[in-house]
Design goal:
Length: 413
Amino acid sequence: MSMRWFKRSPHARHPGRQSGFSLIELGISLIIVGIIGVLVWRWVAASQAPLVVEDMQRELNEAQSALEGFVLANGRMPCPAADTGGNEACGNAAAVQFPWRTLRARSDLGQLRYGVNRGGGADLAVAPAATIAPDLNIDFSGVANPAQDAATAPTANTAATRVNNLIAEAQARRATANGLDWCRVLRRFGNNPMAANTLRVGNPANNMSVAFILVHPGLNGQYDGSNQAGGVGAYRYDFPGRAQDATFDDLSLAAGPTDLASRIGCTRALSAAQAAAQGAYAQYDNARVIQEYWAFRVIDVQASESDVQSAQFGKDMADLEVLIAIASQAVSLASAANTEGITAPMVIIAAANLASSIAAAALAAESLADAEDRLDFAEAKLGAMDAYAARVYTEFGDSLRRAIDLDIKGLNP
């Protein structure tokens, strides 16, 4: 019988052992995979969080732009909406939603909350009273042409007529309110931000006044802190810029009265309008001074004309005296020819009268020449005054036109 040799399998010696990972090895592997998963999850979450915050900030910025556009178009801030329908509800004091429909914004912005100051005597959500005018609400008396007639000073008369029309237009602007008047309300709020019933954000321990605030509910879609329903104490909006943590992930955007005035352009527009109105008033003062001096120049011409007329009458009378003296001399000479010696004194007297009359006539002629020279000088000064008055009136009209245009422009760029 032949012998056969068989190679035993290693498993034959240990029939209960199988190939693969042991439980310990499997557990270690799962731990390693879990750690890697946690690290990956944290990395993904950390990398995505800035993107989410950036999206929320973008929505807040978009809402802010819509608010500012509404102010430029309507001269006031919108009221909050009572619900996510987005229609402003100015009569609802409990309204806290963003009025996206009134602002013609995206409907998904309806999740935002919005508050605007309506207290402290500076309600930013109502149309303001008309308080700013291109004539500073000062009655400019009509600028008349003091010349005797329009033909005397046509250029000045045309300029004065234009100014009077502009004065009437400026007065009519007093009843028209626009963004400039709203800016004055905002400035009044800025001068006394802690007045009673102004919009406060924060909490009873730490708060400040703002012109408006926008709040995003964050990733959890719920409002936290003072932003939650009912708020904290009397506060319905939390501090803008409050750090996010495990219990608070809201994101807010707010503006104080000074910041809002700068963003809207109130400072620039009010300064330009005020400067133009004051410039127009200064030119009005110049025009009034010119009127007084111009009237004096007209009176000077009239007085000079009267002097010429008087001098002319005096010369005519002197000439008549000369004629009478000549006739008297002739009579005296005729009498002397027919008599002897007795009329000699009469001839001498007549000759003296004639000489005196001639001298008086010469003085009268000189006085007339002087009066005519004075009249020419007065008329020359009046002519120069006419040209100067026309320039002053033109500058006054240009200044008032600029003030009116800026008032019509309001906050528009």
